[in-house]
Structure formats: C-alpha cells, structure tokens
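Narrative of accomplishments. A recurring question from our advisory board has been how the design workflow behaves on a single, concrete structure rather than in aggregate. To address it, we present the structure tokens for one chain from the evaluation set, followed by the sequence designed for it. No filtering or post-editing was applied between the two.
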C-alpha cells in the first residue's frame, strides 16, 4: 500500500520566490472527495490519476497512476466540471528534502502553501525557511480537494 506522510503550511510574504525553481503550471480536478480523494492532474504533457485515503494526522494512503493525456483532459472536462484548481508548483531543496510550494490561481488566487513529504513517521521536519508560516496540516480547508469545491476566495475573509 502507498502511504503519504506530509506536512502542509501557509507561505507568508514573497521571500520564497527567490528560493524556488522556475515552477510548472498544472490543472487538477476532483472526481470524488467524500471518503477518498480521486484526482486527475495535467502538468504539461503528462497526466496522472491519484487516489488518496482519509487523512489521519499527517498520514494517508496514496496511489498514483499515469494516464494518457487525452483521457485526462476528457476526464477533467466531463467528470470534474467546476471541481478543478489551477496552480503553479515550485520546488525548494531543503536539507535533503523537497519543499513544494504551490501558488494558486483563479478562485484560489492569493493562497500560497508549502508541503514537505517525510519518508517515515519517525523522521522530523527539517528547519523550515522563515517564509514558511502556520502549520495547516490538520486544517482540511487548505487541501486541494476542498479548495476545488470551496475556493479560498469564498472563505479567506471570514478567517484570521
């Protein structure tokens, strides 16, 4: 079984821009997100299907498969509808880890998050850069499947 152990943070300020690579734009849509998350992702000329289980703390099951690009584009249109997000993903090397920074566009404009995957539950998160803010790992609002249904623009003004 595939397992993902990941911590998620809100990014503050613009200091991250000088620390990351050039990034890549992607669209991802959600077919289902009640008991599990079923995601279609298109990044450039590649596409994938990912199924993620319910989160338990910072851990959840994850299965990812390559898809033909044409199939993925059709799935995004026919199966995901409005449940899609647009973002640019950047990478920052950090003490042997990769910190992925997602800058959201469209209805989620203004939100920037950072995620770090850990190889095991016993592995500590390395010291994070100053531009990595609040840990939101256990706040479901910041997960892409939630953002596809309830965009940041709809809830950001009601939270602190």
């Amino acid at each position: 079984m595939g397992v993902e152990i990941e911590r998620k943070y809100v990014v503050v300020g613009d200091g991250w821009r000088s620390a990351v690579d050039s990034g890549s734009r992607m669209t991802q849509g959600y077919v289902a997100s009640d008991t599990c998350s079923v995601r279609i992702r298109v990044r450039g000329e590649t596409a994938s299907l990912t199924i993620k289980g319910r989160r338990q703390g910072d851990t959840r099951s994850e299965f990812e498969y390559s898809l033909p690009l044409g199939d993925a584009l059709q799935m995004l249109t026919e199966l995901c509808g409005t449940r899609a997000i647009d973002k640019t993903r950047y990478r920052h090397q950090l003490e042997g880890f990769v910190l992925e920074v997602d800058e959201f566009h469209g209805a989620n404009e203004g939100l920037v998050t950072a995620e770090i995957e850990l190889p095991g539950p016993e592995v500590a998160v390395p010291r994070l850069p100053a531009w990595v803010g609040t840990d939101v790992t256990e706040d479901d609002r910041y997960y892409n499947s939630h953002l596809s249904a309830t965009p940041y623009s709809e809830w950001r003004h009601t939270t602190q």
